[in-house]
Amino acid sequence: MPLDLPPAPVRQADSSDDLALVTDLVSRMTLAEKIGQLRQIDAAAAATEPAIIEAVRRGEVGSIINLVDFEQVRRMQAAARQDSRLGIPLLVARDVIHGFRTIFPIPLGQAASWNPDLVRTAARISALEAAAAGVNWTFSPMLDVSRDARWGRIAESFGEDPYLTALFGVAMVTGYQGDRLSAPGSIAACAKHFVGYGASEGGRDYNTTNIPTNELNNVYLPPFQAAVAAGAASVMSSFSDLDGVPATANKALLRGVLRDKWGFDGVLISDWNAIQELVVHGYSGTDREAALAAVQAGVDIEMNGPAYAGSLEALLDDGLIEMAQIDDMVRRVLALKLSLGLFEDGGDPPSPEVGSGADRLEVCRELARQSVVLLKNEHQILPLRRDNLTSIAVLGPLADAPAEQLGTWVFDGEPADSVTPLQALRDVAAGRFEVRFLPVLANSRDRDTSRLDEARALVMASDIALVCLGEDAILSGEAHSRARIDLPGAQRALLEAVRETGKPVIAIILAGRPLALTEILPLVDGLLFAWHPGTLAGPALADLLFGDASPSGRLPVTFPRSVGQIPIHYNRKNTGRPPTPDTVLLIDEIPADARQTSFGMTAFYLDDGHTPLFPFGFGLTYGEIAYGPVALSSDLLDRSASLTVTASVTNHGHHAATETAQLYVRDLVGSLTRPIRDLRGFRRVMLQPGETRQVSFQITAHDLAFHTAEGRLEAEDGLFDVWIGPDAESGTPARFRLQSRHRPT
Ligand code: GLC
Fold first, then answer.
1. pTM of the predicted model, to two decimals?
2. Is 271 a catalytic residue?
């Protein structure tokens, strides 16, 4: 999965004087001070601040997580710089996952924008806000390709596609790190969780993963390779075991791939206590064995665990590890601190106010708008017109839930900053029409149906029902997997009650994962899927509801008809018996006397078929978009040349629209079976009513390359199909042949 990446920013700490400084420091450090640099402690759970400061003064701590008070950081850094023997400053880490104080949509929602530039800007704002609080290291971006909606952490991912995940990972890395890590407002990024965590069996968090080499090389590793190439300052090892070897002890991956093959020389940190958990996995017998395995694998810093501090000295004394290994680990940590400018005078965080608040909120609102996916718009019920409304009934547990709309992994965002859908609708109404509100349910899990009659009555007395449903923030994120992915609680009953009124119904769903919407789709006329949109969920949704902006979001992940279809993703293999419309006979169509071979023997479910409810890349706009046929500049692609692929895109509707035209390729025959489609590009195209634009892409052999069984990244001669279309299922492909230039014999 190749990707043309921006040149990696020059890593600052490799200049000769920096290296001299690091080498000199290491030569003067005691073993205890070296081990201190390899420890990260949790300020939120550790002893009191004086106890931490004492440990810092003794050189026993190299980095701290969950320290976000500007003055407290200043005191800690002063203790490190002025009071410790060698004055080595601290790394101050925080999970800034989708915003610090200004909360942007969850990463899965950001991915739905298909706008890496905007995501980079949001990451930049997040870095400015975090740096102003003294944070200099974030544990983001999460690059785990996620194909299982049951997994709670799909919320933190960029979805199911390696190409899209890589693009957004690079956008976040460059947004956080800026052009220079030592510049005010830049913070170190951390590509996590290396690797394959998204393949946790059954979508159950922390579960085992078994990933064949082909999938590892062509799906799970590429986003990390892109982030490393883009200059990610650090990588985090995953909790999960991979084919029986926990990632945190996986020498083949951490040393063999990450360091030796990709040349990554940044800091590798374990996930939370993941070194000691090697014992729980049953991979190491003791903390000491676990520490040895992690050192051999190349883990530099232990996040919040006892193994390194408790065992490294003994491992050295027993000759099981060399001082040179410890020195290498310490050197990488010091090099990161140098890159961040922490040794420089005034290496303190920038003034708390870096950049104005107004532009941050505008970016927050814009990214929230672009993350929302319009899934249904029956009879063009949307956009609403303010002037022909007298009243709206706003219902549902997520209409006015300031904390829930922020989503998972929010530590420093303030629900008080949130503007909810209800508040925004009241602002828009401003006396022109009435907004009547009834939550009906206390939260998304509430099963109490005692207020459904009240809900019906409110809708009957109003022009239209706007129902805000979905998942509370707690239902996704780490350790929050679900075995069923329907609307929780009595939310479906609420929709059914509202539907009985016969009034127009618009549903807005806020959730941290794809939900199984099959049963509720007939109950609504309009459906906006908003993920968890963050601080300005309300204004962004109001902009879309009233047409001040047109929905442009596209699904970065497949929406299954039911949880039973999982795993389901667009870039699947053809199999030897692919289902086709005439080989699929669903359960209600099976004749009464059907016998074993009564209909097609192909790969589908008798009850839910083989197609998703909504495919990857799907999203409606307020326009009526049509694609012309795919045209090729040639049906032969020489390896040294490029091929131009073009299609027209027309808006036959009455509203302007931003359409995301997607480029997919298929390698028809490969030395490994290849996916039936692979995303290789996209263009966001603004189209006025009636406007037609030509969308073009250049394809080269590089775009067709994949990691072969021999581990080479190469494109193989042969036939390829190519699409330009609105999602991963639509369109008719054009066909071309890739050929090596045949030299005359
Ligand atoms: C958590 C997560 C990881 C996070 C770290 C620090 O358990 O797995 O993504 O960055 O611990 O909070």
1. 0.96
2. yes
